[in-house]
Write a structure and sequence with these properties.
With about 260 residues, the protein is mainly α. The protein has helices spanning about 1-45, 55-75, 80-95, 100-125, 130-140, 145-160, 160-175, 185-195, 200-230; strands at about 235, 245-250. Helices cover about 75% and strands about 5% of the residues.
């Protein structure tokens, strides 16, 4: 009977469930990218060297305080509450007019992700050896050029697992957007369960769908990470004229093999 019920629910609502999957992936992907950009921008701003100009010192302190408040607020409150406050707050200011649902969802998830990405990026920047900052400054690069051409490329590689993890988290966390009526997967399942009166079967189906999405994306991102690592064997040319001077090196993998 259980599998017959599952088949009945699937036959009734598979189209709207796939629409929910599409919206979930769209919101998660775009929001993760925007959140990463927000995190990178905050990372660059917060690492600007202290200026000797007293006015610029004050401006930097004010900006740092504002950014710290943003990070603490959005990391310290649930996304469901943020969605309610932003959506209804805009309606209150605009005299009852609400934001379009998908742009509203992208905005909510992006600024939430940005707060987490800012700390991830900060940790990535701290992990870079200070000698690279000094070397870039020694050849005449300013702070912005140092970050863009020297630091950020290394940071992105180092924090890629964290970015991947944030993407997977966003896939699951978009379910809270149903509180403002965004037609993601959980919202579509709620509508379908009310239509079929099969609550357990409906949510069992979307549990499997969420698992398939997160499992597949996690494996794809891990494959991408391995591709970025490059070959585990390489050759250092000790002498262009003497092949015997070549040094063959095999790097150790993460598992030590």
């Amino acid at each position: 009977m259980f599998f017959e019920t599952i088949a009945k629910v699937w036959q009734t609502g598979w189209r709207q469930l796939f629409i929910g999957v599409g919206n979930t992936l769209l919101i998660s992907l775009i929001s993760t990218i925007i959140g990463l950009l927000i995190g990178l921008l905050i990372g660059i701003i917060r690492t600007i060297p202290q200026s000797k100009n007293p006015v610029l010192k004050v401006v930097k302190k004010i900006v740092n305080v504002i950014l710290s408040i943003y990070i603490e607020v959005f990391r310290g409150t649930p996304m469901m509450v943020q969605a309610r406050v932003i959506d209804w707050g805009y309606a209150f200011i605009a005299g009852g007019q609400t934001l379009p649902l998908i742009p509203s969802a992208l905005f909510i998830v992006s600024i939430n992700t940005g707060a987490y990405m800012a700390e991830i990026v900060r940790g990535g920047i701290i992990s870079i050896d200070k000698g690279q900052f000094e070397g870039a400054q020694a050849i005449g690069m300013n702070h912005f050029q140092t970050m863009v051409y020297v630091v950020i490329p290394q940071v992105l590689r180092n924090i890629l697992p964290s970015i991947s993890n944030e993407f997977v988290i966003n896939i699951k966390d978009t379910s809270v957007l149903n509180v403002i009526g965004v037609a993601e997967l959980f919202y579509q399942a709620t509508v379908l369960s009310k239509l079929t009166f099969e609550i357990f079967a409906t949510y069992a189906i979307i549990s499997v769908m969420y698992l398939i999405m997160t499992f597949t994306i996690t494996r794809l991102l891990r494959l991408f990470e391995k591709l970025l690592e490059g070959k585990n064997t390489y050759t250092i040319m000790g002498s262009q004229s003497d092949p015997k001077a070549e040094i063959h090196i095999k790097s150790e993998g993460r598992d030590g093999n």
